[in-house]
Amino acid sequence: MDLSYQAWQQALADEFFGPQHAGHQSLFYVDADVEQELMRRSSIDVPLAVSVGQSVQPESANPYAEIENYRWRMRREQPDGVPAFLPLLACSVLAATKMVHDQHHRASTYHSRFSELLTGQSELLRSANYEPISRMWQVLASWQHSQDGARGMCTIPSPHDLPSNRSLIGFALSQSLLSGRDRNLLPEIFSALRSYNRDAWPLGGDALLSALEIRSWDQRFSSGFRRALAEQEFRPLIARLLGNYAATWDGSPELVPTGVPRAGLLVRLDAGRLSWVARTSAADAARIELPGNVALDRLGDTAYYSVEGLPAPSARSLHEGVRLTGEHIVLSRPPASVLVLARNDVLGVWTSTDGFTPGEGHVVLAAPEARSDVQRLLDRAASGGRRQETARLSWVPENWSLHRPVVFDNAMTLRQALREVQGTVAFLHPTAQFKLRLEGGLRLAPRLDPQLYMTGGEPSVVLPDAAEGALLVDCVDRPELREALALGRPVALAGLGLAAGHHTVSVGDAEVSFTTAESAVVAPAASHPCGFGLTADTASAFPAVLADGAPAVTGADCPSQDSSVLPHTVLCRRGADQLLFAASDGRLWTISCPERPAWWAERLSGVSAPPFFQIEFLGVGGWLLERRAGRWRGHPVDPKPPQPGTSTAARAWAEAVLAAQEASADPSWTAYVLEAKELER
């Protein structure tokens, strides 16, 4: 990958997804001014679009294959790193900021601008080429959510929140709605609205949007924001974005400057009292000093810090918010009229959270001005905790009401109630889900296989927000799961009586797999191990007793085969740069061309080696992949539908398949490529 692309990836990751954004909204906004500033600050000589355009192949079926392959290589080196396609996504946002009427395009035209940006021509990259980019946006959102706010609060909308006529480009458009100048206006506007609404805060996005228009404050925003506001399909998206910013505003007259590390202040409930705890991934120090004799002390090997010198949470501090600016860090908490606490798995106590989690218990505290909003929400959606506790507890802030334990069994009902009630509870919507995934369960030997679970301790399945179709377990519809599906909650698989072995769970085109066993396999210790010794990564032909610590192959997978099954014989031409076999079950082999045996020169002097050599495949099907002169070619070997699973080995399989995705146009090979792309998500 070009060095300028790597420099842009690092610059964008540091700017928009660095730990300094922990606990605050992270908007991936890139326009011409932002591009120039990043080039100056990061000493990059090549413009963003030029750098990305060098890796785009507009005539190919997948123009972004080189970028996707680079993302896979970087993921192997840095599994938790920012996905390495940020420069391409930045170009998609840059194209969105250019959507104005000019002599060549209408304001609503997007794909021609995107194509011009990367190729210099408006017709090369069309809407049909854009699907991989929309998938990249969802991968980025899933990654950011997996960081639990340590790399910024995600502002990328879920697919079902996008306008139907902008379902692909809506991700990029959502990031272009608020420029940096627009965001700098928000603290002043929020302060005025909070005073006007008698400290009821934060307001819902719809209320904020109405207030902007009633007072004509929307005219102070950029032309891009006003154009989006005029489109009815985008108003819900803008409202959600404004509501999220209001929910994380810390009450100060200006935003925290870009690049300044932040620590989020959480409320902790433990042993019948409220206190503070801070969380930050932007500092490694054991102790952090702040003004006013406030100090943060790290709690073990976690991202959490105890807080000394700050008065305990009170009605006033919760109303007004907290912001302390130190020499190298800002400690802040947004003002709120509603406080929601949930069990923190790391600390083992109740701590404040950003939203409700369906199916889990919560403690809800409400200020007097928010009491009616909370009660309406609970009456419409809660299955437990609707009644307000009347007993006065010493740790409850003065005049605040208390509900516990509050449980929302039905996620869909909760989302609908939040949209209807709005008010001070509008920001408490559940976290968006972008992909089918597994959570929980009792893992066996996670270091060996992260998808191996104990029989009877199977994980739960979390469905994407936009999932359609029936949930199938091992290709079978299970009626007992329909109630959990209807509630929109994680679906527990423990209790289905699944036998030990490999299992798949699918909905629509998405699929995840896992394996269950009665116990983890433990290799017995041998006093005199025997195996095939390794020399220069080549195994010896015969087994022998091994010396302690000597590199060797000490075991082999030799499943029994039906003697009636005939092997598939394939002839391979010598001289290939690389020869791989991608099996349908997710295994991957590197095939080496056999050398001439020692007796060849003696018995067949002057006879060259045959141009082909023979490979036999017994009981396994897949694709033989051959790379010559930089180009891949594929040859089917009794291929079956791909079922690679999700293990570490399957990731290597997917990387090889994506690297060779142009090897064939056969529909069977296309299925392999699509399966590899799903593993990327």
Verbal overview:
This protein has 681 residues and is an alpha+beta fold. 30% of the residues lie in helices and 21% in strands. The strands form 7 sheets. Strands 3, 4, 5, 6, 7, 8, 9, 10, 11, 12 and 13 form an 11-stranded mixed beta sheet that branches. A hairpin with a 2-residue loop joins strand 17 and strand 18. Helix 5 crosses helix 6 (111-119) and helix 14 packs antiparallel against helix 15 (411-421). The radius of gyration is 29 Å and the shape is globular. The chain starts with a helix and ends with a helix. Residues 100-107 and 556-561 have low confidence and may be disordered.
The fraction of residues in strands falls at 15-25%
Rg over CA atoms: 29 Å
Please summarize the sheet with the most strands.
11 strands, mixed
The quaternary structure here is single chain
Name the overall outline: globular
SS elements, strand count? 31
Distance between the termini: 22 Å
Our count of helices gives 19
Q: Assign a percent range to the helix content.
A: 25-40%
Query: Uncertain regions: pLDDT < 50 for 5+ in a row?
Result: 100-107, 556-561
* Structural class by helix and strand composition: alpha+beta
Average of per-residue pLDDT values: 83
